[in-house]
Design a protein that fits this description.
The chain is globular, with a radius of gyration of 23 Å. It is about 35% helix and about 25% strand.
């Protein structure tokens, strides 16, 4: 595997990308159009500035910013300096960010000012964060350092050798059921996993990759930035998802690669501008993180012109990748499964259906949390994912739900994802999320939050009646709530805990 044996680390990958793709366009962001050689030079300057600022090998450095070109330069600079990146979710508030910065011992924070009217510096200061702050974009308040002034510190310092066993990042989990935990991954794991990912999806040199998935998430950082360096694709950062702006950028930049969660594609397909939009450059889509109706895959191919749609499954604790469909799988397989194990990785189901993963991609552990690590990874090296699935005779898995999302209706296990998939077959339903709510008689019952298709109106009682004809009685939602949109985190996943609170209210 080339990524493991030849490059071994992100700094090695940067050098290799320059050798292979020096004059090809590496990144496009506003007025910036840099080649791979220019991107590498900018990253080296950032690394030297970090060293001049006292950052040493193994130090943690955080980035709290949207998808912008400076994020990419800061990331690669951190890696070239031998430091460990700690990305922060752009939707965090000050206390949430402060917890992770304190827990990880971050020595410096890169952030922005003015993004979506958020005062990141003010939130950091208000939460008592005293680490140095560098403002990547926007006005730098007193006591912080502007990006240009930071880069001016570069003085030609010697950079450390970074090996495959060195930590590359500590990615904190979303923490929807408790305090976030920091997942540790090495350079060798990250590069090797996403060379495999790039091979399987068919990413290639010259692809123009609109990265809507947030850089603070594995899907944006590793399946985005690193994959582009691995294959010689152009990084086109996109800060905030909006169907209108995405449809405009596709022809502007001749975008060929557009990954995202199913909700992203559903939003585009449901948008009134799509019929008149020029999407002829689109070639490749990668999705996952939720059950996908076959109709969605077929519509992506027919209405958006994708030659290839690939689905996969993974979680932060295994570098974000464990199983993948192959590009030549049929639409039914792509929609109804998350593929089979990637090379050199084992995936099995426990007796209760929980998905277990073992291989080079499994995390080094949770940052400074040996008890949680031992709970997640057993003595035989199996990562217990907390996801419930089924596996066919080919080894392809379908994730039916999270253990914690399952609810019990009168003694029957009800899996929201299964119910959601059935409801998406209704002609008036564009998006749906199902949660369990307390019920005196049955213990729990399903509540469905439904977004209608454009131009359609969903009648809650009629949808409940339709459900009774299409699924077992215990699966039928006892209540349907029509909403304009579902609450999503910045990675495009539905915030089920918010819906549970609403359903129980």
């Amino acid at each position: 595997m080339r990524g493991d044996l030849e490059w071994g680390s992100v700094p090695g990958l940067v050098r290799s990308a320059v050798e292979r793709f020096a004059d090809s366009e590496a990144i496009v962001d506003g007025d910036v159009r840099w080649t791979f050689a220019q991107l590498a030079d900018a990253a080296r300057q950032a690394a030297e500035a970090l060293v001049a600022s006292g950052i040493v090998r193994g130090d943690r450095v955080s980035i709290w910013a949207p998808n912008i070109g400076e994020w990419v330069v800061a990331l690669l600079g951190i890696h070239l300096a031998g430091a460990v990146v700690v990305p922060l979710n752009t939707r965090f508030k000050g206390d949430e960010a402060a917890y992770i910065l304190d827990k990880s011992g971050a020595r410096l924070v890169f952030t922005v000012q003015g993004f979506l009217d958020a005062d990141y510096v003010g939130m950091l200061r208000g939460a008592g964060v005293d680490a140095p702050i560098v403002v990547l974009r926007g006005e730098a308040p007193d006591g912080t350092t502007a990006w240009a002034d930071f880069l001016a510190r570069a003085d030609g310092a010697q950079l450390p050798d970074v090996g495959r066993g060195d930590l590359s990042d500590v990615m904190f989990t979303s923490g929807t059921t408790g305090r976030p935990k920091g997942v540790m991954a090495t350079h060798g794991q990250s590069v090797r996993a996403f060379e495999t990912w790039s091979d399987v999806v068919g990413l290639r040199a010259g692809d123009r990759y609109l990265i809507v998935n947030p850089f603070f998430h594995t899907f944006g950082y590793k399946a985005g930035i690193l994959a582009c360096l691995i294959r010689g694709a152009t990084i086109v950062p996109h800060a905030v998802f909006d169907p209108t702006t995405v449809l405009a950028r596709i022809p502007e930049e001749r975008i060929s690669m557009l990954p995202g969660p199913p909700a992203l594609f559903q939003s585009i397909l449901n948008h009134p501008d799509l019929p008149g939009a020029d999407v002829s450059s689109l070639r490749l889509a990668v999705t996952g993180a939720a059950v996908i109706p076959v109709e969605l895959v077929e519509r992506m191919q027919k209405e958006m012109g994708f030659e290839t749609v690939v689905t996969g499954y993974g979680l932060t604790e295994c570098c974000g990748i464990a199983t993948m469909c192959r590009h030549d799988d049929d639409p039914e397989t792509i929609a109804r499964t998350s593929g089979r194990a990637i090379a050199d990785v084992e995936v099995v189901l426990a007796d209760d259906g929980e998905v277990l993963v073992r291989g080079y991609n499994v995390m080094q552990g949770y940052w400074e949390d040996p008890e949680e690590t031992a709970e997640a990874i057993d003595a035989d090296g199996w990562l217990h994912t907390g996801d419930i699935g089924v596996m066919d005779e080919r080894g392809y898995i379908a994730i039916t739900d999270r253990k914690k999302d399952m609810f019990i209706v009168g003694g029957f296990n009800a899996y929201p994802a299964e119910i959601e998939n059935a409801l998406l077959a209704h002609p008036e339903v564009a998006q749906v999320a199902v949660v369990g709510a307390p019920d005196e008689r049955l213990g729990e019952v399903g509540v469905a939050f439904v977004v209608p298709k454009a131009g359609e109106t969903v009648d809650p009682d009629a949808l409940v009646a339709w459900s009774r004809e299409h699924m077992a009685n215990y699966k039928v939602p006892r209540r349907v709530v029509v909403v304009d949109e579902l609450p999503l985190n910045a990675s495009g996943k539905v915030l089920k805990y918010e819906l549970r609170q609403r359903a129980a209210g």
